[in-house]
């Protein structure tokens, strides 16, 4: 396995690097999250091997009206009570199954647990690989819901509880 370097995202340097492998809808969500990242209401970690992006993750730590969560009560619920919400964890296809996803998730969790008691996420009901990954990494299945943003695909909600380390 090639050594992966994990670091906080540098918005001026890394957004163009991420654009080379993000699909348009994910690039649009990253663009939408930029104000939250700039205001420290979210954080992102990027993983690179030899200056090539292997993957990235995005965690929201505060409710924001500019994130279009007004109509989606579930996301608002996930961020309530001082919890955090993992919006993205993505590893390039050719690097999956090699442990990079777990390393990236560990880095996101380490930063999250400093302040937040729980990290919530959702994944598609049909994405068996993602479900296994999160369950293997200690996430508890909470429920299945039909999200307002996708009428055709049920979504599974997961949560991991932390002992806050300050």
What does this structure look like?
With 166 residues, this protein is α+β, with helices and mostly antiparallel strands. The protein has one domain: Gcn5-related N-acetyltransferase (GNAT) (Aminopeptidase, 3-Layer(aba) Sandwich), CATH 3.40.630.30. The protein is 32% helix and 30% strand. A seven-stranded mixed β-sheet has the order 1-2-3-4-5-7-6, with helices on both faces. Helix 4 links the parallel strand 4 and strand 5. The radius of gyration is 15 Å and the shape is globular. The mean pLDDT is 86.
Low-pLDDT stretches: none
Question: What structural category do the secondary elements indicate?
Answer: alpha+beta
The CATH C-level class name? Alpha Beta
Strand fraction band? 25-35%
Shape: globular
Main pleated sheet: 7 strands, mixed
* Structural Rg: 15 Å
Q: Tell me the total number of β-strands.
A: 7
Tell me the CATH topology. Aminopeptidase
Alpha carbon gap, first and last residue: 33 Å
* CATH homologous superfamily label: Gcn5-related N-acetyltransferase (GNAT)
